[in-house]
TrEMBL record:
Pfam families: Hexapep_GlmU, NTP_transferase
Xref: CDD domains: ADP_Glucose_PP (cd02508), LbH_G1P_AT_C (cd04651)
Organism: Chromatocurvus halotolerans
Family: Belongs to the bacterial/plant glucose-1-phosphate adenylyltransferase family.
Function, as annotated: Involved in the biosynthesis of ADP-glucose, a building block required for the elongation reactions to produce glycogen. Catalyzes the reaction between ATP and alpha-D-glucose 1-phosphate (G1P) to produce pyrophosphate and ADP-Glc.
Domain Nucleotidyl transferase, residue spans: 18-282
E.C. numbers: 2.7.7.27
Catalytic activity: alpha-D-glucose 1-phosphate + ATP + H(+) = ADP-alpha-D-glucose + diphosphate
Domain Glucose-1-phosphate adenylyltransferase/Bifunctional protein GlmU-like C-terminal hexapeptide stretches: 306-410
Name of the protein described by the UniProt record: Glucose-1-phosphate adenylyltransferase
Alphabetical keyword list: ATP-binding, Carbohydrate metabolism, Glycogen biosynthesis, Glycogen metabolism, Nucleotide-binding, Nucleotidyltransferase, Transferase
Amino acid sequence: MDDHNPRYVSRLTRNTLALVLAGGRGSRLYELTNWRAKPALYFGGKYRIIDFPLSNCVNSGIRQIGVLTQYKAYSLIRHLMRGWSHFKKEFGEFVEILPASQRFSDDWYQGTADAVYQNLDIIRAQQPDHVLILSGDHIYKMDYGPMLVEHVESGADMTVCCLEVPVAEAANTFGVMQVDTSGRVVGFEEKPAEPREIPGKPGMCLASMGNYVFNTEFLYEQLIHDAAVADSTRDFGHDVIPAMIATCHVHAYPFRDPQTGEKAYWRDVGTLDSFWLANMELVSTTPRLNLYEREWPLWTYQEQLPPAKFVWDKDDRRGEALDSMVAGGVIVSGSHVSGSVIFSNARLHSYSRVHASVILPETEVGRRVQMQNTIVDRGCIIPEGMRIGFDSEEDRENGFRVSTGGVVLITRGMLGLAEGSA
């Protein structure tokens, strides 16, 4: 079958149910996820992380989507209701929220596999040919159609989407696969301390992205079997996939840039440093992640806001933003912004200088603030005259968190302000 035939691909995507795993806490982001699940975290000036896998599904032609929620899901559910509830069931399309609700047991979701297992009745009701299971907390743009085609053409029971990554980066972080020359997975270790290298590519290993395609009936069998294993942790990477390698056909699908054939852009923004860096990458002249590409739009919810505004034009009091992204509703009043991402409704007051920082919505930066290499959480009010990001010891004394890479995190609680939903 011609895998470039659009009608062939569209039949595959139309008969695929996508399940987005969005219940993770993101503990390595510390206070940034105290009041929100990691998939609900803001990114790129106007988006939330969950928008990336959801946009990938819609742009790929997959319009039957379930989002599995658990940890502190209020802001995530609110965002999904506002931005992703317009699909019409009558047209065979939907984005539905599947919260942990003890459908098959007295427990909440115990792991990635258990989260899907507890929704088997919902999957059966849809009768899809394939189930696409996606991590809800990564930043990337991907057409899932070619992966579905390769899954079918390979005759696999299951396909794992993967990336080539340095061994040092994968250690204790990713599931790592070993494959034969046909792409069949012959070994799988979840977060090994010493990942096995790819033959012929020293220093590199094949890491799972946490995205899987299953033949539906095969998925039922594997989840029911895993649920009966007493000592299972109910996790795809730790339990389900390793158990099936020897007797089932598991295929590896390398995620590559369709234009260059090289490893595609993909970021796990699971630490303060990686979250800050991924945002900083966006303000370069030609970022690897192009948010302005009309052929692959990123969908989200954003309230109706006035344009960003820059006021005062004096030598010592000029409102300006250079090499930066500035969202709607922002007022930069007599302050200088460079190399930063400023989210909606922020206010930056006169004589301040903000460099290489991520300012989340509804933040207020007082006069004469000097700030660099900083993440400011939603709704913070930075007092007048503060210097942040120049002296790590001083930042810690002020109650702020300083990452291993020197990025400063400021939240409302650190400033003595009332904390709450984000």
